[in-house]
Amino acid sequence: MANSCRKLVFNIYIGFYCSAVIMPQKCICPQFTSSPIDEFNKDAEAFPAATNGQIFPWHELRLPTVVIPLHYDLLIHPNLTSLDFVASEKIEVLVRDATQFIVLHSKDLEIINASLQSEEDVRYRKPGERLTVLSYPAHQQIALLVPEKLRADLRYSVAIDFQAKLADGFEGFYKSTYRTLGGETRTIAVTDFEPTEARMAFPCFDEPLFKANFSIKIRRESRHIALSNMPKVKTIELEGGLLEDHFETTVKMSTYLVAYIVCDFTSVSGTTSSGVKVSIYASPDKRSQTHYALEASLKLLDFYENYFDIHYPLPKLDLIAIPDFASGAMENWGLITYRETSLLFDPKTSSTSDKLWVTKVIAHELAHQWFGNLVTMEWWNDIWLNEGFARYMELISLNITYPELQFDDTFSNTCFEVIKRDSLNSSHPISNQAKTPTQIQEMFDAISYNKGACILNMLKDFLSEETFRKGIIHYLKKFSYRNARNDDLWHSLSNNCLESDSASSGFCYSDSKKASNTLAFLRENVELKEMMATWTLQKGIPLVVVKREGRSLRLQQERFLSGVSKEDPEWGTLQERYLWHIPVTYYTSSSNVIHRHILKLKTDTLDLSEKTNWVKFNVDTNGYYVVHYEGQGWDELITLLNQNHTLLRPKDRIGLIHDVFQLVSAGRLTLDKALDLTRYLQHETSIPALLKGLEYLELFYHMVERRNISDVTENLKHHLLQYFKPVIDTQSWVDEGSVWDRMLRSTVLKLACYLNHAPCIQKATELFSQWMESSGKLNIPTDVLKIVYSVGAQTTAGWNYLLEQYELSLSGAEKNKILYALSTSKHQEKLMKLIELGMEGKVIKTQDLAALLFAIAKNPKGQQLAWNFVKENWTHLLKKFELGSFPMRTIVSGTTSHFSSKDELQEVKLFFESLKAQGSHLDIFQTILEAISKNIKWLEKNLPTLRKWLLISI
Ligand code: BES
Ligand code: ZN
Question: How far is the CA of 878 from the centre of ligand 1 (A)?
């Protein structure tokens, strides 16, 4: 048998392709330098063995492109009592080159029968003949062997019957449960496929490039409803009372976007101005929390249709709150699934920041209906084309649809968050190789999301919003129902630019940007591509060093590395070959005109037309670079902040605070210089800027508190309370004011109570007692709710009461706040109890375990406990979450990356090494080790300065 199979492989042509291309014209798949058939000749052993011992005819992780799917007919029957499903499918495929086998993905499915038929091939006209099915679980693939070679350019229909258990975790077709008000536990069945889990629900060509149409049928009991990507066309009644829902055929789409759900949820609905029916589904007792999401999604869908000038192509859009969900949300076309806290808004317990979150997640997933669903990246190495755009569109859409949320003022945080990671050597380029499912999952990180969004924002600022918008519309229209890669985007953006350029104003830039050199820069399509290659194919972030010499500005670029100073021996090597095309912007004391320049070289000189007192680069922090002012530069800016900070734009003040502390980490500035800069904050009129400054001081506080450096901890506490006293004392305990007034209230009171500020503790204790006395009925202002619970959780009675309320609460927003409060207890046995409940997954759901461990590790009394737990229960945790998944990465980095001593570093290193021996290879491990080393260096270098500065300041 093995022999015949070997022969079979020998005789056929196996097509090869290489679309995982990162560098233009250069294939990054070395194994494809010769065709697989040649390789087979050289080394027959290169083909793996299937589970039955026969040779499996394919040895790549990527599927062959010889056979491509056109249409799937799926019939699924989940049984919510026995917790399994039986199913059958018919896949219509096109054979592009003659072949004797079809390889497709399948994971943990029991294949009952597979057969093949064809209208176009006379040899296969008769009812399907049973096919041999080989399975190669290491690659999650099956191969169907056909008796006679399939012919090129003909269509065939593959029929497969299969079954499986509903999955236990959060991937594939899995079960989720919820408790009703009456205390009954109910089960639903739900799918979550991205990136590579559609293969757990049905055998398929599970790669984004294989787009097809899907006709889905679901069998269910009458007490349930079924939902899928498309509207239901009809329901037929089967023998025994079962119902079968038939859904309209989908548009052409990738497998990871397929979704279906069987549940007993209820909904609220509305219609957009273009006639799309939008519904929000939730478990019946949570219907009252769905109204905000309906309002927001109607508004946002209208916005996107308008903004992209492309209709949402489906007749309906459902958004559904799933009780057990691994990530925040998933953009399945027409049936978006959400974690409850990402969709539901409870006016009694959801705070301003909860509202911002829900709106942001809805905006993000709706943006994917275009970026991702309509136009999909060719392969996962460019997932940023989905996620970076969706994150970028959060900003664009919220600015217009919800200006009152003032989201614009926090966008720079999106960039600051990723700069932390990107300024470590272990970062990676936006477009990165990804082969295995684990590597693919790891691509869903801050680099793809945040850096992607930040470089798009930088490019938009450079091209002007209108030109950029035209370019992306061009891209979306051109690649609709197809796949794209980076170059397609750059091409659409530059071509569009050229068109509008000649048509009207003669400029590709916003009006204020008509510098002649910038204009020349974009004339050539190839240059935009070249420029963007420096941001997407190269890791890291540049530092622009500015030196003013009379009327000249000397600019220099280098790679910005936090934690490595110029004096360190490795600095030179880490700098080699890094160069960006940086669109820099600046204004000076002489006028607020925005000047532009593209810094393409290592060094450059600009001439100022007038003498100036100061110069500020990176206007509105729209650029993805850090700026250092040499000579008197920083002193001039600090003087300016103290004298009249409003001469600088608010977002520039935020940027200065960010950069100054980054430069301390990189050894370019001393900490006292940065701390001196914060002295102006007492007069700061912009709340986001004030919060940015406070954030750094708090960060230092937590660092010294964790390390038990008691003199500095005490003095810093004193400084914070004294310095921010005017702000703390003027806060009311009422939900009032603008979004930023409310954010300020939450942040400042949280800090005051954390630092044991007596008036804060007193007020919170009073509210907590009243709440307990009212049996949890009293409405506490939502923005201080978490603070009140946290203070209440410090007594055993309060803690126990909160845990009881946790079980009873129907609001995810409230439950999150309670869980956080419980995790701030100073009693280790209580913290341990929480972890046990989280591991058990009943009272505290498994989906919340990562956030719980993260919160406990943040608590100085819990940090060691959480870390020890993770080490000792690693294999248990791996049974719950996939290596490389969001939750697992949160757990690992959440319980380690704050460490700041050599002993801790050594311990973490040893643990990670022991994992490597088990075959783990998480990217994140290196990042964590680097982050800890950075903390160690920071403390060594800056603790004495901090200590001294505090003595002078208080
Ligand atoms: N496409 C992702 C969901 C996803 C995440 C799939 C990771 C596979 C791996 C979705 O659009 C997403 O980005 N969700 C975010 C929420 C959003 C606000 C950024 C999430 O789950 O955190
Ligand atoms: Zn996304």
Answer: 20
Please name the residue whose Cα sits nearest to atom 14 of ligand 1.
Answer: 329
Nearest Cα to 342, choosing from 880, 808, 847?
847
Cα 527 from chain centre: 30
CB-CB contact of 688 with 742 (8 Å): no
Model confidence over 657-685: pLDDT tens digits?
999 999 999 999 999 999 999 999 999 99
**Residue carrying the six token digits 């399945």:** 332
Reference 469, options 651, 304, 276; nearest CA is 304
Q: Which is it for the CA torsion 379, 382, 383, 387, positive or negative? A: negative
Give yes or no for a contact between 647 and 669, defined as CB atoms under 8 angstroms apart: no
Taking the CB of residue 373, how many other CB atoms lie within 10 A of it?
Answer: 25
With 0.85 as the threshold, say if the pTM is over it. Answer: yes
CA dihedral 391, 395, 401, 402 (to 10 degrees): 110
3-class secondary structure per residue, 451-477? HHHHHHHHHHHHHCHHHHHHHHHHHHH
Q: Which atom of ligand 1 is nearest to the CA of 328?
A: 21
CA distance 37 to 13: 7
Q: Which residues contact 794 (CB under 8 A, 6 or more apart)?
A: 824, 825, 826
Pocket-forming residues, ligand 1, beta carbon under 6 Å: 194-195, 327-331, 360-361, 364-365, 368, 387, 390, 444, 886
* 491 Cα–ligand 2 center, Å: 24
> Which of these, 170, 206, 163, 204, lies nearest to 190 by C-alpha position?
170
Helix axes 863-872, 828-840, angle to 10 degrees: 40
Phi and psi based region of residue 55 (left: phi greater than 0; alpha: psi -120 to 50; beta: remaining): beta
Query: Of the given ranges (524-533, 693-702, 836-845, 867-876), which has the lowest mean pLDDT?
Result: 524-533
Phi, psi of 74 (to 5 degrees): -120, 130
Do you find a cis peptide bond into 195, omega within 30 degrees of 0? yes
> What SS3 state is found at 564?
coil
Atom number in ligand 1 closest to CA 327: 21
Rounded CA separation 847/281 (Å): 20
Respond yes or no: is residue 365 known to be catalytic: yes
Per the annotation, does 340 bind a ligand?
A: no
Per-residue pLDDT at 19 exceeds 70: no
H/E segment holding residue 145: strand 141-150
Tell the residue number behind the tokens 């990671």, with chain if given. Answer: 421
Question: Over the stretch 434-484, which tens digit does the pLDDT of each residue have?
Answer: 999 989 999 999 999 999 999 999 999 999 999 999 999 999 999 999 999
Asked if residue 319 lies in contact with residue 362, where contact means CB atoms within 8 angstroms, the answer is yes
> CA–CA separation, 712 vs 946, rounded Å?
8
Among 171, 197, 331, 365, the one annotated catalytic: 365
Give bridge partners of residue 339 from the DSSP assignment: 322
Give Rg (Cα) of the chain. 29
CA 95 to centroid of chain Cα atoms: 37
For residue 886, give the ligand 1 atom closest to its CA. Answer: 7
Burial of 60 (0-12, 13-18, 19+ CB in 10 A): middle
Terminal Cα-to-Cα distance of the chain (whole angstroms): 84
**Polymer length of the chain:** 954
Q: For strand 266-271 and strand 277-282, is the pairing parallel, antiparallel, or unpaired?
A: antiparallel
Give the whole-angstrom CA distance, residue 287 versus residue 666: 51
SS (H, E, C) 235-304: EEECHHHCEEEEECCCCCECHHHCCEEEECCEEEEEECCCCCEEEEEECHHHHHHCHHHHHHHHHHHHHH
Do residues 367 and 400 make contact, with C-beta atoms less than 8 angstroms apart? no
